[in-house]
Amino acid sequence: MSFSRALQKTVSKRVLKTLVVLVVFLPLWTYMQASLTVNRSLVFIRSADDGNVRADDNVATESADAVRCSHNCGHSGTTESGSITSSSEPLSRQFSTPAVTEEVLRRHRDDVMPFCENPTRSSAPRWPSKEPVTAQELAERFPMMQLGGHYSPSNCTPREKLAILIPYRNRSVHLHTLLPNLIPMLIKQNADFTIFVVEQAMPTRFNKGVLFNAGFLEALKLGDFDCFILHDVDMIPLNDANTYQCRSDGPVHFMAGVNKFHYGLSYSWLLGGVLGFTKDQYKAVNGFSNLYFGWGAEDDDMFLRLKKKRMDYHRKGKDVGLYDMIRHSRDKGWEPINSRFSITHFSTRRIDDDGLNTAVYSRTSLRQLPLYTWIRVFVDMKQVYEKAPEYMKDVIEKASRENAALLSPGSVEDH
Ligand code: UDH
Ligand code: NGS
C-alpha cells in the first residue's frame, strides 16, 4: 500500500468516527441533558407539594400559600413544569432568587388561566339535604378541600378570595347540616373560599357582633381575603345560583326570603342571615357594634351604619336568594334584653367609637380542621362594656344588669 493510500484510509476512518460521534452520540447526550432538566423541575414541584419550598429554597414567605399554589398549579396541568423547561434560564438561577412568591405564582396563573366564571347562573332551586353529616363523612365526601376548610379551583383564576365567617356556639347539628350544602355550592360556583367557624367560649352571653369582628380580624391574620360572607349557621341556601361574591358598589344581602316567613322577610330592611362585605366596606362601617349581648338588634344597627355611611346594599332576588332555616329553639345565653333598643338609639353617634376598632376578645384556640378553620374566642362582657362611650353609661348599666340576671349560675351550661 502506498503512503498516500494509507493516509487516505486513516483520514476516512477519522472522518467516519467523527460522523458517528456527531450523528449518534451528540443527540443522545443532548437528550439525556434535557430529560435531566425535566426531572429536576419535577423534583422542585414535588418538593413544593411536600412543603419544603421555604426550608430548601428560601423563596416562599408564606409557605402554606406558596405550597398550595404550587400544588394547584401543578395539578392544573403541565403548565408549571412546561414553563420551567421551556425557559432558557438554568433552574438554579430561576429558583434561588426570591421570585417564587405567592404574587408571582398568582400572576403566572393569571397568564395561563382565564378568570373563573360561575357556571351555576341558571341552576334550578334544589331540595336541600337536612340530614347532618358526621365530620369524618364530610371529610371523605370532600377530599378536594384543603386543611382549614380551603378550596381554590385549579383550572381558572379566582377573582376574589372569600372568607366565610360563621358565628357559632353549641350548634354542631346545624353546622354539620350547613357544610354539606354550602361546600358543594361554592365549589360549583368556582369560588376560592375558606370557611371559618368562630366560636364563643362559654359562659358569657352570646355576642354575634364581636364574633364577626373577631372573625374578620383573625381571618386577615391568616390570609389576604377580599370578601367576607357573614353566615348564620342555620341558614341553608336553596339555589346554587346564589353567587357568593362581593360587589364593589355596596354590601350584598344574599337572603331574599326564608321558609320561616313563607320565603319572604319579616321586614324590608332586615339584614340578618347571610351578608357579604368587601374588606374595605367592612372597615368603612367599622364592622359590627360590640355592644349587643343576646339576641336581636345587631343587624338593625348595621343597617343604620350603612345608612350613616351612605352605603347602598344589594338584596338578591327571590329567583336565587331563598333559604331554609333549620328550626330550633332559643339558645341559653342568647335571650333578648330590653336594653337593646336603647343601645340602638345611639347607633350612628358611636359608629366610629364602637366596632372593629374597639373589639376586645381573647383568642383561646385556633385549629385548622379538614373542613374549616376553627377559632374560639373568649369575650369578657365587662371589658366590652368598658369601651362603650361615656354618654351611654346609663344604658350600659341597665344592659349589664339585665345580662347579669340572665347569666345567673346554671342558666348557661357548657356542651
Ligand atoms: N348562634 C349560635 N349559638 C347560639 C346563638 C346564636 O351559634 O347560642 C349563631 C348561629 O350562627 C345562628 C346565629 O347566631 O344562626 C343567629 O342566631 P339564631 O339562629 O338563634 O337567630 P334567629 O333570629 O332565631 O334566626 C332566633 C331564635 C328563635 C327561637 C324561636 C322559638 N320559637
Ligand atoms: C328584629 C330584630 C333583628 C332580627 C329580626 C328578625 O326584631 O335583630 O327581628 O328576627 N331586631 C331587634 O330585636 C331590635 S327573626 O324574626 O328572623 O327571628 O334579625
UniProtKB/TrEMBL annotation:
Signal peptide: none annotated. InterPro entries: Galactosyl_T (IPR003859), Galactosyl_T_C (IPR027791), Galactosyl_T_N (IPR027995), Nucleotide-diphossugar_trans (IPR029044). It is an enzyme of class 2 (transferase). It is a single-pass type II membrane protein. Pathway: Protein modification; protein glycosylation. SUPFAM superfamilies: Nucleotide-diphospho-sugar transferases (SSF53448). Residues 130-246 form the Galactosyltransferase N-terminal domain. Residues 253-328 form the Galactosyltransferase C-terminal domain. It is found in: Membrane. It comes from the Eukaryota. Residues 90-99 have a biased composition (Polar residues). Residues 71-99 are annotated as: Disordered. The keyword Nucleotide-binding does not apply. Its EC number is 2.4.1.-. Keywords: Glycoprotein, Glycosyltransferase, Membrane, Signal-anchor, Transferase, Transmembrane, Transmembrane helix. It holds the Pfam family Glyco_transf_7C. Residues 76-89 have a biased composition (Low complexity). Belongs to the glycosyltransferase 7 family. PANTHER family: BETA-1,4-GALACTOSYLTRANSFERASE, BETA-1,4-N-ACETYLGALACTOSAMINYLTRANSFERASE. Catalyses the transfer of galactose onto proteins or lipids. This is Beta-1,4-galactosyltransferase. It comes from Aplysia californica.
